[in-house]
Amino acid sequence: MSRTICFLLFLILGTGALCAQNTYTCKGIITDAKDNSPLVGATVLVKESGTGVSTNENGRFDLELSKKVKTTLVVSCVGYDNRLIYVSSNDNKDVYHISLQKSTQLIDEVVVTGTGTSHLLKNVPVRTEYISGKTIEELGTSNIEEALTTINPSFSFAPNSMGSFLKVNGLGNDYILILVNGKRMYGDVGGNNDLNRIPISNIKQVEIVKGASSSLYGSEAIAGVINIITKDPVDGLSASNDSYISAYGQFRQNNSVTYSKPTWSTSTNMSYKKSDGWQLSPLGKPSRSQIRKGQKDPVPTLAKASNAFEDRALSQEFTFTPNKKTFIRANGSIYDKEIKFPVDYKSYNYYYSDMNFSLDGKYEFSDHAQVNASAYYDNYKYKYLYGQKYNIVYNDDSGSHQKTFYDGDQQLNSVQELLNFKANGVFKIGEYNCVNTGVEYMNETLESPYRFKNDQEEAYTASLYAQDEFSLKYLTLVAGLRWVNHEAFGSMLTPKVSAMVGNDWLKFRSSYGEGFKAPTLKELYIYYEKEGMGSHYLYLGNPDLKPQTSRYVDASLEFSFDKLNFSVSAYRNKLKNMIAYKLIPVPDAAADRGVAKAKKQYNIEEASTEGVDVSLNWTICPSLQFNAGYSYVDAKDENTQVVLDGVSKHQATTQLAWSHKFKVHDLRLAIQGKGQSERFYGKEQVEGNMLWKFTSNHSFTVNKLKFNINWGVDNIFDYKDDKPYGYHYSTLNPGRTLFAGLQIYFN
After folding, report:
1. Exposed/middle/buried for 242, CB within 10 Å: 0-12, 13-18, 19+?
2. Which of 10, 403, 486, 491 has the highest CB neighbour number within 10 Å of its CB?
3. Residues with Cβ within 8 Å of residue 187, at least 6 apart in sequence
4. Which burial class, exposed, middle or buried, applies to 477 when counting CB atoms under 10 A from its CB (0-12, 13-18, 19+)?
5. What is the CATH number of the domain that holds 738?
6. Domain boundary among 70, 103, 136
7. What is the mean pLDDT of residues 216-224?
8. Is the pLDDT of residue 12 over 60?
9. Among 496-500, 591-595, 628-632, where is mean pLDDT lowest?
10. Model's pTM, two decimal places?
11. What is the pLDDT of residue 532?
12. 699-724 pLDDT tens trace
């Protein structure tokens, strides 16, 4: 065994040494074509592999390339047209001088989520939607949920104390895989992630791939994948402060400090957010006990539609680049949030905390081959914080028990832990093929007192995957397959095939993919008795559950002209083996304890979503831009043909923005609108709405300091859904509000 290991190490080191002998350093400087000023932070990517570097404060770059081949470099910078540069060791050039023209077209960014490899957005073969961090900042929003729904009509949220309740094209959060820098956002309450764990001012870009993507990303990638990518450190010392204030005590502040040298960097990010919450109505729906006593009209309540909260986050990142082939990154973050309820309404508050650590590494054998590896740990806790005396009753096979909590006590609801290891290699094979293949191992643990017979359960998932990209001039094909082995349900295969054909101004894309969602530990093993409000129920998991699966197909057309980009896509997603509770006979032992009804998890439901997405981006002139989007979705239960809860068939967004650069002042004025049609929750109909917002952005630069001031009016026409608490709302927006923000950057 030791000889084998030594031989493999020798082979790897020998290969690296051989590659080093066949490389050379390509040097260059990138400037503005008009005034010849150096462009800081411009990106130089190797088209064949997606690897690359950024320019320093002098606009210069060094890039190690293979001597054997002629290499295509993609040179890009925000606000400039991209250029393709062909370089070779035979050129005998000491320095390449590359100039870029200011862009009047839509900016074309680099994305990675669709295929796991780098592509220009316009050339990515898997349909990918892109939102820049700059666009999010210009909206002047208090949170990422508002930003996403304002920009993209496929998103909808109905946030409350249990989470964000995100939907994409009719399917909820538990069918959407959310990534942060390619890693799972782990930890949820009721199947919903809290996106506020990510400081909004630290977002570089958001990449969205809709539909089944389990061949590349595994479980949960049924409705789509959302990859939130945070900002990279810039050269030298930089610092920033981002503050936001609005009505109802809404306040946000984010501070970051980064320091970067050629071989290492450090980045610290701290954020704080709070809100006093608000009521939409001082009345509430009567409780079941009040209804039984004859009360039908709404009653006074202290409950808030949007609850008060405070949250804090701290993250630290280190990177180390000992040479041009090796990259190592270590990252850690802590987060906590308390959701506060009126004391006379609820005896306890909700408290969430998250702690995660990751270690990533990348080694480039050449510009045609690289390997990546990562280890990731996440611990997410959910507790009750008591503000007064409170008695709870819990039941198990040994009988009924009562526990008393007092002011200041804490009760653990659940602890979710994830341990995740991944490794993959990306290899350019010949002129036309790029192979991405890897392995992944996940171990999940859930501790939840009073909800499991053993208090804690765990399960592992191991998987292998491979994907091949085949590219010709006007055609790109992508085919991938993942094999999964799950401790509870066994093995399965999930494929995906995508194709893109077209030229610079017209592209057709189509995909077929299968997705899956592994049953959660709660669905597999829960054993929970709930007593109260005149009822006594028993909830049981089912260790024999199958994974929920989907089959997804889509087709899209994209037109790109000088200043106009238009796309239309159609899709269908059919889900099978969906998990839901089913009434079963009450076990004898539970009946003796007074259990009236028993429910057990089964694979009993099917659903489908189909629809059309349309987007238009038009640069009318260099200073005036118009964006619009529309989403139609028909999402229904296949067994009953009833529309899925909370789905709007029609959603739309629009924005008109005007900008002008004065001598020392950059001005941007914008008006945004977002609307949705009515929604249904069973027989309850929720009306549609259209909300409008005005934002004003002002930027100044003084020496090494940049100031950005934004202010505006949210909900210009003061729309408010003020029905009694307890019903479903059209929107939680409190009405017309003023907001203001200030960002200060130092570099």
Report:
1. buried
2. 486
3. 193, 352, 354, 378, 380, 416
4. middle
5. 2.40.170.20
6. 103
7. 93
8. no
9. 591-595
10. 0.86
11. 64
12. 988 888 899 999 999 999 999 999 99
166: three-class secondary structure by DSSP: coil
Whether residue 381 is found in the same domain as residue 498 = yes
Domain boundary among 62, 84, 103: 103
Looking at the fold, whether 595 and 698 belong to one and the same domain comes out as yes
Contact, 25 vs 8, CB < 8 A? no
Q: How many CA atoms lie within 13 A of 229 on its CB side?
A: 18
Domain tally, the chain = 2
Q: Residue 5: pLDDT band by 50, 70, 90 thresholds?
A: very low
In a domain, 641, yes or no: yes
Q: Is residue 2 part of a domain?
A: no
Contacts of 490 (CB under 8 A, 6+ apart): none
Is position 618 within any domain? yes
For the record, the structure tokens of 418 come out as 């994830």
> CB–CB of 187/378 below 8 Å?
yes
Taking Cα atoms as reference points, which of 78, 44, 80 lies closest to residue 61? 44
CATH of the domain at 71: 2.60.40.1120
Taking residues 233-237, report their average pLDDT: 84
Q: Using CB atoms within 10 A of its CB, is residue 592 exposed (0-12), middle (13-18) or buried (19+)?
A: exposed
Tokens of residue 563, six digits: 């200043």
Q: Which domain holds residue 69?
A: 23-103
pLDDT digits (tens, 9 = 90+) for 341-387: 998 888 899 999 999 999 999 999 988 899 999 999 999 999 999 98
pLDDT value of position 18? 41
